[in-house]
Amino acid sequence: MKDPKDRLDDLRVDVERRNPAQPEFHQAVREVLDTLAPVFAARPEYADPAVALVERLLEPERQIVFRVPWTDDRGRVHVNRGYRVEFNSALGPFKGGLRFHPSVDIGVVKFLGFEQVFKNALTGLGIGGGKGGSDFDPHGRSDAEVMRFCQSFMTELYRHIGEHTDVPAGDIGVGGREIGYLFGQYRRITNRWEAGVLTGKGVGWGGSAIRPEATGYGSVLFAAEMLAVRGTVLDGLTAVVSGSGNVALYTIEKLQQLGANPLTASDSQGYVIDDKGIDLALLRQIKEVERGRVSEYAQRRGGSARFIPGGRVWEVPADVAFPSATQNELTEADALALVRGGVQAVSEGANMPTTPAAVRFFQQSGIAFGPGKAANAGGVAVSALEMAQNAGRVSWTAQRVEDELASIMRSIHAVAHETAARYDAPGDYVTGANIAGFERVADALLAQGVI
Ligand code: NDP
């Protein structure tokens, strides 16, 4: 049998050759493969080329690409591209969000789908991994335009999804409004009330309490668990948060509930710093109600807040950091600035927001680093709870869902922490989360034969 490191190198080279021009997918694969050597050494059946287990994990079960034509308010026709990558269903129906952003291409969707497989396995809730989206840009589009786009998107997607097959949810650019339009069109085309086909629905029509809050809340709870291991609490700490969307807003809310002081929020144009701490009601009014920019926050907040155009929140000194916008938004230089500023813990609300060099720098500097696969799994976990409620035609109270979320985040932290220790990498949550997720999916695949 080959040395595990050589086998992993072969796999990486093969993925890059077979999936050209997909840098985000290569990055996500490399990040997982880099942590698997100890598990290959301990369990040679995982590494055996004759079984091709990892090759099967690296190849999506199905990749769907489709045309999405739609008409704007002036009668002009636009054509976008839609994607759904059904990555792995060994543990349950494909599950993962839809992203509407101009940067979306097949490589981005595959990176997100690949990450989702391991994240969903970590939740222990019986969900496989998938992801989808479109290069459609919702910024500046009217409600009617977004509705027509969503209806056209679902007119193709509906034939591929279902409560037992594939269950999409939101992601960047897809929130409650878009899920409503998508669900309405699914229902109309299929003539079925199949609530469990999408998650992130409104609470009045099949949605779960706490689903909008879940990713941000979970990311803060994960940080609290990492700090507890080090004998610290969030109460009284300062925080930097990037983004100002779903994940960022509820990260800020939970931080404030736990007595921490979030100082920043950002969007693609720059960031705001508020010396008094973010006024969440004002930020929500601007982002959720008016769908405006964070720069408006500084104008309306008065003296304590400033907008830094083009700036990065990581230059603000703080005790804890929550990258909650998008991939590769926190570089090695940013990590250096954060460590100089005294950061103790980093919890990834976004998917793959920290570059590999920055992750290494945090780990070498002894900073508690929570990778997105573990730290932001609260969102998909509550989506799975939404599916459970839909299947039983019941609605749980917000308190019950929040208690379940807290218990799931504690358990994800414990599994990642214990697995890292078991494989001689104490405190390394990247290794712990990757191996724990990998073992669950790998064992299911092996048990189910050559599929
Ligand atoms: P939203 O669309 O609600 O918000 C995204 C935020 O990130 C906005 O402030 C946006 O600013 C900013 N942003 C997006 N792209 C870029 C970019 N290229 N450069 C700079 N800023 C950018 O998305 P979510 O909050 O739902 O998602 C944020 C992250 O969290 C993503 O990585 C997503 O995959 C991840 N995630 C989300 C989950 C969920 O439940 N929603 C679950 C798990 C992970 P602007 O408006 O200017 O584009």
List keywords for this structure.
single chain; 451 residues; alpha/beta; Rossmann fold; 3 domains; 5-stranded mixed sheet; 5-stranded parallel sheet; 18 helices; 49% helix; binds NADPH dihydro-nicotinamide-adenine-dinucleotide phosphate
Annotate the secondary structure layout.
Layout (H helix, E strand, L loop, with lengths): L3 H15 L4 H11 L3 H6 L1 H4 L5 H6 L3 E10 L5 E12 L5 E7 L5 H18 L5 E6 L8 H15 L8 E4 L6 H15 L20 H19 L8 E4 L4 H12 L3 E2 L1 E4 L2 E5 L5 H10 L5 H7 L3 E5 L10 E3 L9 H9 L4 E3 L8 H9 L3 E3 L1 H4 L2 H15 L5 H25 L6 H19 L4
Parallel strand pairs: 3-4, 3-5, 6-7, 6-11, 11-12, 12-13
Antiparallel strand pairs: 1-2, 2-4, 8-9, 9-10
The site of NADPH dihydro-nicotinamide-adenine-dinucleotide phosphate has 24 residues, from helix 10.
Walk me through what this model shows.
The chain folds into three domains: 55 residues, no CATH class; 133 residues, Rossmann fold; 162 residues, 3-Layer(aba) Sandwich (Rossmann fold), CATH 3.40.50.720. With 451 residues, it is α/β, with parallel strands linked by helices. 49% of the residues lie in helices and 15% in strands. The radius of gyration is 21 Å and the shape is globular. It starts with a helix and ends with a helix. The strands form three sheets. A five-stranded mixed beta sheet has the order 1-2-4-3-5. The relative contact order is 0.12. It has 18 helices and 13 strands. A hairpin with a 5-residue loop joins strand 1 and strand 2. Helix 6 crosses helix 18. Bound molecules: NADPH dihydro-nicotinamide-adenine-dinucleotide phosphate. The site of NADPH dihydro-nicotinamide-adenine-dinucleotide phosphate (NDP) has 24 residues, from helix 10.
